[in-house]
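pasting for the record
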Amino acid sequence: MKATTKLYPVIDWMKYRYLYFAISLLVILPGLFSIFTYGFKLSIDFTGGTQWELHFDKPTTETQIRQALKEIVQPESIIRTQQGNYIIRSQPLSAKQLQLARQALKKKIGSYEEYKLETIGPILGKELLKKTIYAVILASTLILLYVTFRFKNKLFGISAILAMIHDSLVLLGVFSLLGHFYGIEIDTLFVTAVLTILSFSVHDTIVVYDRIREAARIYPRLSLRALINKAVTETWVRSLNNSLTIIFMLLALVLLGGTTTRWFMVALLVGTISGTYSSTFTAAPLLFVLSQRKK
């Protein structure tokens, strides 16, 4: 059926469905390669340990810090931030070890300011990782059940979940690459960003699906292809405008916000862009392709 009818002019979005899938693959495949090759750089939230952020009053090198601490602890990593601070990561340190480390740094290097100190045991880190996985699985299952019940068709739910997985893979792949090349770590704030993006992605997808269902009631003789084209035509501008307001705000926070939440904002930014794309150019084409396969 032609995408343009006497009832309303629409674009034949489904004509380019395989192009949309190809674009998604071009973005996802490098991320998947990075995930399976390099994995993720996990913060102490998941691995357990002590993370110490310091700013020394005089210029200091990583070698000097290691030399000062060598009799107390061997740090797993020492990272210099853009602000000139040093982040020291090691196995969990006791209160006595921390006291000795402070004394050693002051004696051998000089005075410094202590900005942040976190200590998490390995058992707590593993428990947090388990709960994170359970939270994502639970959220995905509930969304699948809700969408299936709401639209009385399991294909709607399956398509929404596949679009959600698309957004998750994009975000995970980007942070796997960032972790490998720039040392960016995944922490609990990243988990918050993932769950937020999942809800945002499904929210936009449901808007498109609701238009499809509404059009099906008004024009029962139209094919599914025409219904999807009509729904996408009516909603893509609204989705883009809505997402741009969020993207502009997140960009401002990434550029002007503090270092503590910067990568959380980057995760939200990547997820928002991916979710805006997937709700229109992944979820709707998937629904069409799955319906054709079912027939």
